[in-house]
Hints:
This protein has 505 residues and is an all-alpha fold. The protein has helices at 2-21, 26-50, 59-78, 81-84, 86-95, 103-125, 135-140, 145-173, 186-218, 233-264, 274-283, 299-326, 335-358, 363-367, 370-400, 406-432, 447-477, 496-501, and strands at 402-403, 479-480. α10 (233-264) crosses α15 (370-400), α13 (335-358) packs antiparallel against α15 and α13 (335-358) packs parallel to α16 (406-432).
Amino acid sequence: MASSSNVRSLRDRTRDALSWLACTDHRQLGLAHLTLIVAAMFVASMDAAFSPLIAGSRPDTAVDLLRVHGVVMVLLCVVPAVPSTLGNFLLPSLVGAKAMAFPWVGRAALALHFAGFALVLAATQSGATTHAGNATMVLGHAGVSVSWLVAAMTVLVLSSALDAVNVLVTMHTRRPLSVPWRALPTLSWALYGASLTSLLTAPVLCVGVLLVVGERTIGLGVLDPQLGGNPSLLPYLLWLYLHPALAGAFIAAMGVVSHVLAAHSSRPVHGSMGPVFVLLAIASAFGWGQHVYAAAISGLVVVEMSFGALLFQVPLVFLMTRWLAALRAPIALRTPMLYALAFIAHFAVAAPTGLMLALPNLGPYLGASTFAIGHLHYLAAGGVVFALLAGLHHVWPTLTGRLYDERHSKVAFIALLAGTELAFFPMLILGSRGVPRSALGASRAMEGWQIVSSLGVVLTVVALLAAFGILLAAMVRGERVTHRSAVSGNSPEPSASELVAGLRP
Length: 505
C-alpha cells in the first residue's frame, strides 16, 4: 500500500512538473519567467565576481567574462525583468481582466525566453563575447558561436515583442468599457509604455541580425568594409534597439515603484502620471546617439541626440516630484518600501550621470571610461533589480498565500544596498579619473578602488541569492496569509477591477 502511494505521489509530482511546460496561466508564466531571470542573473553575477580575481594572470579571459556578464544581464535579465514577471502577475487585475488576452502568446514568449537563455550560454561558452559595437570582429569570427549569439538575440527580442503584444492587446481589448484610460493605475501605464518601446524597436534589431547573417553567409556587402560596406552601421542599429529597450525596462521599473509607494504610504500616486510613461517611451528613441559619439557622425546629429537625451530628463523630474510628494504622508517601512526608497536614491544618481553622458563635450570622454559602466549599473542593478524586488515583495503574499520573513528580508536588503554602493560607485570615481573600460581590473593606480568594487560585487551576489532564497522559502514553508491586512500594503490607488466592482467611488 505504501509503495502504491509513493508511486502515485511521484506520478502526481511528475504531472505537476510537466504542467508547467504547457501552462497558459499568466501567474505560472510569470513565475517561470522569474526563474529564468534569477538563473541568468546568477550566471551574470558570477562572471562579474570572478573577472577581477583573474585579471592579473589572465586579462583576456577577465575581459571575456565581463562581456558575458553584459550580454546575459541585458538580454536575459534587465529587459524582460518587470514586464515578463510583474506584468504577468498584476496586469489582468489592474485593468479589470480575468487573464491576459493571448495565453498561448505568453506561453510562446516563455519558450523563446528559455531558448534564448540556452543559446546565450552556448554562445558565450564558445567564445562569442565580442563587444556589440565591434562589427569587424563579429563579421570576422569564423566559429559557430557568433551565429548562436545572433540567434539568441533574435529569439530574445521576439520573446519580448510577444510579451509586449500581449500587454498592449490586453489593455485595449480586455479593459472594461466603463473604465476610462485616465482611471488606470500607474503601473499599467508604465507597462504600456515599456511594451510600446519593446515592440517598436524589435524590428530594428531584426534588421541588424539579418544584415549580420547576410554578411556571414552570402557576403551581402552592407557591413563588411572589404566588400565596400560600412561597419559603423551595425553599432548604430544595435544601440538604436538597446537604448530604448533599456529605457523601457527602466520605465516599467518606475511604474512598479509608483505602485509600491502608493501601497505603503497614505497618498496615491495619481493616474494622471500615466501619460508621462508613454512620453518617456517616445523620448527614449531619440537618445541612442550618445553611445556612438566617437563615430564619424555630423555635428547636427550630435546636437539632435543630445537634445533627445535631455528631453528624456524632463518627465523624470516630474516623476521625482510626485514620488517625493507621496513620501510626505505617513509611510510603512516594510521591505517593499525599503527597496522603493533605494530605487529613488539610485535614480538620483543615475539621472545626473546620464545627463553628463548625453552632453556632446563630456559624452565621448566619459562614455569610453568606467563612468558609463557605473551609470548603466545604477540603472540596471540599482534601478530595475531593486524595483523588481520591491514589486515581488509587495505581491508575494497575495500571489503565494504565504508571508515571507520580514526581518530576514530587511537584512538581505541592507546587504544588497551596501553591495550595490560598494560595487558601482567606485566605477563612477574611476571613470571620472579617466580609467578606460578595458583597464577595469588592471589599473594599478586605482587598485584600492577596484578592490572595494570587487568586494561589493561579491556582497551583491550573496545578497541577491539571499533575497530570492527568502522568497522561495516563504513559498515552501512560510506562514499562511489569514486575512487581508497581513498582506504587505494595500494600494489606495484603485485598480480597474475594483472600480468595476464598485469597491471604490
